[in-house]
């Protein structure tokens, strides 16, 4: 792909992330093109259908979250890294849930397409890795599983409006306390 084509594709995906997060299923490809500053033909040159665009946007978003998780994993303090990751994922949750909710089952009716499944699996692996590192140093309860953390993050995503920054921050602090990932209490939530 030529450099300008790759740049346009990235602009479209970034715009789509915002448009789909704001408008859900009512989002239009015309709005995505307008926000990306490209023609509708450019959108459809990169993504044959709106569903292709949604899928690519979901994959890109999951990959971005996975990259953040892996970057935080390099921190010398696994407990702080895990707490920072949960804060990041809680803030990203509403967008992630909206994108995932827009995805239909794959053509075979057996779940999501392979690219989305692979991106979701990589994301789960990064989250589990961060949890296990925190558990290894006693910064998270040993009985907590990745599924527990995912469930809590989904609950926060469903209960949170994107504008509720302070309320979300407090709720994440309480969740971190419950996970044993914030030994000094939720008041230290800005340290990560």
Question: Which labels suit this protein?
Answer:
71% helix; 192 residues
Describe the structure.
The protein is mainly α. It contains eight helices and no strands. The chain has helices spanning 3-23, 29-36, 40-46, 50-73, 78-102, 114-136, 146-159, 165-179. The N and C termini lie far apart (38 Å).
Structural topology:
Layout: H1 3-23, H2 29-36, H3 40-46, H4 50-73, H5 78-102, H6 114-136, H7 146-159, H8 165-179
Helix pairs in contact: 1-2, 1-4, 1-5, 4-5, 4-6, 5-6, 5-7, 5-8
Question: What's the quick description here?
Answer:
This protein has 192 residues and is mainly alpha-helical. The chain is 71% helix and 0% strand.
SS class: mainly alpha
Tell me the number of strands: 0
Percent of residues in beta strands?
Answer: under 5%
Averaged pLDDT: 85
What best-fitting shape do the alpha-carbon axes yield? elongated
Please trace the helix and strand order, writing H or E for each element: HHHHHHHH
Given as residue ranges, the uncertain stretches (5+ residues, pLDDT < 50) are 183-192
Give the N-to-C terminal Cα separation: 38 Å
Specify the helix fraction band: over 70%
Q: C-alpha Rg, in Å? A: 18 Å
Number of helices: 8
What composes the largest sheet? none
In terms of quaternary structure, what is this?
single chain
């Amino acid at each position: 792909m030529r450099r300008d084509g790759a740049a346009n594709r990235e602009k479209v995906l970034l715009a789509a992330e915002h448009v789909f997060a704001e408008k859900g299923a009512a989002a239009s490809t015309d709005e995505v093109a307008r926000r990306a500053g490209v023609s509708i033909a450019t959108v459809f040159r990169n993504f044959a259908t709106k569903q292709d665009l949604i899928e690519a946007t979901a994959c890109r978003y999951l990959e971005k979250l996975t990259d953040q998780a892996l970057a935080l994993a390099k921190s010398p303090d696994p407990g702080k890294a895990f707490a920072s990751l949960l804060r990041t994922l809680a803030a990203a949750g509403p967008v992630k849930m909206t994108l995932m909710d827009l995805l239909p089952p794959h053509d075979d009716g057996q779940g999501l397409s392979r690219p989305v499944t692979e991106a979701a699996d990589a994301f789960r692996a990064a989250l589990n890795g961060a949890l296990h590192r925190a558990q290894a140093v006693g910064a998270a309860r040993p009985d907590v599983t990745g599924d527990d953390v995912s469930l809590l993050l989904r609950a926060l995503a469903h209960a949170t409006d994107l504008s509720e920054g302070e309320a979300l921050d407090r709720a994440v602090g309480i969740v971190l306390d419950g996970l044993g990932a914030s030994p000094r209490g939720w008041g230290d939530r800005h340290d990560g």
